[in-house]
Amino acid sequence: MLWARWTCTQARRLPIAGVAYITGPNTGVHRAMPVSRLKFESLPHAIFLQRVTAQTPATSLEARLGQGAFLALRLVDLLAADREPVSSDAFHYQWIATERFCRELRAAATEGAHVHGIAASASDAHRLNDRRMIAPALLAYAHYLEDAMRLDEGLDVLWTLVQVGGAQLSSPDAVAVRLRLARVNRKQNRFDEAEAAYAEAGELAAAAGDRYSELLSRIGRANTLLGRGNLPEAERCLQTILADARAAGQQDAEARAEHGIGVALVHMGQPADAIPHVWRGFELYEDEESRLRALNDVGIMLLSVGDSVGAERALSEVVRRGGTRDSTSNALIELMHCASFRRDRVGFARWRERCEAQLADMPPNIAADFHLKQGIGQARFGQFRKAEALMQRALEIAGGAGLHEFEFRIERIKNGLHDCETLLQEPTAAAEPVFDTQELREVSASLAQLVG
Question: Which domain does 73 fall in, by range?
């Protein structure tokens, strides 16, 4: 395993950088430069070797997955059109070494299957002289890394597809990779790069007559405005996109625009106006995961206006339907939050136990949120020492993951624990909903009918 030994040696010589995560549409870590321009540019894909640290031995699964990704992507690099052609023998020998290493990872973890798939697609692309064959595996792996909040690694994979695939990529793949590049950059608050990628995706989609992707590009740019804090302009753009999506009969784009308008309104301090928009997004979405994401947001917003009953209905339905691990974990945390809001100690303990059962699999942004809201719950029950310890743990998790905006929020709450009645500024358990409009009553009625 000469390649494996070499990757371990090189990894120990590399600077270790934090991985960026987000906790919501406006949070993240600003990275001054994209992965392709980092200091260790002379060693492509070296970011994957950063998994080998003093805390993560080279023999661990995590380290071997990073090494496997590095080897597979280096194999893909041999296909690039702008480099000297590689002899069949040279490619074959590198493929054999890479395949042998990655084969062991395939059954060990989901990520291992992705990495092995990349190596296999590179072999097929070389054999058939068709670089388009690498696109599905690279896009799938980038999606996996994004969901796992390994955003810098995801960017590396996406840039590899752009650089190696080049003009040979099919129109749908060329648009898809730029939309995902934009999304990952936006999650890292790198808004200039996000806007440039969204614009390029929109131009390619328009040239190909792909109306849906063109709308997605516009929605992405509106979400970038939201991330920059230009909330009125973001809402205005999304309202225009909503009308265009309806006129074009693009239901998924319509759902995304409705959801985005709701997010803009809630950040503008108008949750009662936001809820009907997000609910309409829920009704319009066709894929289950998007529906669950919207329903989770409806639950959080209902709690913010004092409707804990409606919030628990929405969030319980998310849990009942299942979905991804992250969507379920988020809903469980919010149900725990609802219970403490109502000063329900038994319910709080029950939901906390269910959250703790998933804690080991939670990414840092969700784990930090769990400890924060568990701390808020303990403060509501007068357990200030427990609350302070839990919030300190949330702060450590957020700091370790580079969740700087989350850190600031946790610190504000933690520093005001001894005056939490003023700080939290939430209605008491016996309070009626703050807002009572016809649209909100319709959402509550529809929600009650949904959950039976």
Answer: 1-14+23-169
